[in-house]
Amino acid sequence: MTPTGRFFCLCGTSQLKKTIESACGLIAALALFAIMALTFFDVGGRKLLSNSITGSLELTELLMVAVIFAGLPLVSLKGEHIVFDSLDNVWGAVVRKLVKLLVNLLCAAAMLGLAWLMWKTGNDFAGSGETTAQLKIPKYPFIYGMSVLCALTGLVHLAHAVTPPADHDEAEGGAL
């Protein structure tokens, strides 16, 4: 069995879901906490000591990358994307399943394509030594991380295309 085939088989298991949720959740939580702490100390230093933290904007931008891209697999895994379901009552069950299949395949293709482009960009940045302007932090590790998380999100959508997640309740997500 190929590694991709193993992923599809494992994606239905609770252990793989827990691993993805734990890893991505930890990355997002730590990055968000770091943003909060950085902002607190930066504002405190600016107001109390008249001196802000050097490079705080750059650090916040890099940490936001971690929060956003670590959240992508989580949202996809749980099927919590924004959904336009106005036509669900008009379409039959077969059409709804076909639409979900096509949407998951389209999302998988987009995320895997984006992952490939980001990996290429990471290679370019690593080769050229691209860094942030003020703190001179190399950019390529963040771009590689974005690529890996996009690829993981694409694989989650492929797995959902093969074995779709259970439908959410109508009232879930704030629907009236």
Structure description:
This protein has 176 residues and is an all-alpha fold. The protein has one domain (3-168). The model is unreliable at 169-176 (pLDDT under 50). Helix 1 (3-11) crosses helix 5 (140-162), helix 2 runs antiparallel to helix 3 (56-78) and helix 4 packs antiparallel against helix 5 (140-162). It is elongated. Helix content is 72%, strand content 0%. It contains five helices and no strands.
Q: How much of the residues is beta strand, in percent? A: under 5%
Radius of gyration, taken over Cα atoms and rounded to an integer in Å: 20 Å
Name the overall outline.
elongated
Low-confidence stretches: 169-176
Main features:
176 residues, mainly alpha, disordered C terminus
What is the structure about, briefly put?
The chain is mainly alpha-helical and 176 residues long. The chain has one domain. It has helices spanning 3-11, 14-48, 56-78, 93-128, 140-162.
List the helices and strands and how they pair.
Elements: H1 3-11, H2 14-48, H3 56-78, H4 93-128, H5 140-162
Helix pairs in contact: 1-5, 2-3, 3-5, 4-5
